[in-house]
Amino acid sequence: MFPLKDNIATRRTPWVTIALIAANVVAYFLQLRGGGTLFGGPSQQTVVDWGVIPYEVTHPGDHCDLFQGQVVCEGQPGVSGMAEAQPSTLVTAFSSMFMHAGLLHIGGNMLFLWIFGNNVEDAMGRARFLVYYLLGGLAAIALQTAVHPDAAVPSIGASGAVAAVLGGYLLLYPRAKVLTLVFLFVFFAFIELAAIAFLFIWLGQQALFGLADLTNPTGGGGGVAYFAHIGGFVFGLAAIKLFANRQQYDYVKPKYPVY
Length: 259
Description:
13% strand, 53% helix
């Protein structure tokens, strides 16, 4: 299920949304300088170095590195020696938001950010939107770490921050219409859904896959940090009223003339 566009116009150019998309794209190509492929994303070493790892968050001062193709961390049972010098956990908390595992990963995230982010930015202003976006990404990391505090698996992607944008959009424009591409096995269809329906379906998917991840944390979730998505979304719901101070007039205006 992919959104294609909504019916809420913006009043001014969403420069922060555009800048975030550009930054993610530039960062993606810069990451490939350390290895990896255009379609498959950066190398495993780059992901370990610049992605955020829950174990490093919950074990300050201990770092993780690659050993024979596996991620191992200082202080783990049976692990000796020191990891190579790496960026601090604070740095990776932000750098991980601008990393992606492949073209489909970054393409999907940037599509969601463009469709929903421009209206949320319009509702809160540029500076507030940037702060809201970054805090949403941190909230996503926080929940993913809380659920799997000892996980030695790097998390990368803008999904958590984008999920915060979706949570804000849900409360701002629940009745907006979203043109959606829906795949049904080998068939597909274009359906116009209310934003509240689209976003609740999306959230339900994250919850179901997250439960699968809890029951089989080594593979049930397919390598996707679904709890990061949920954490970002919940932050977006909780914080939107603190950041947004206006809605698009075309959305809230009465349907009939008022005399």
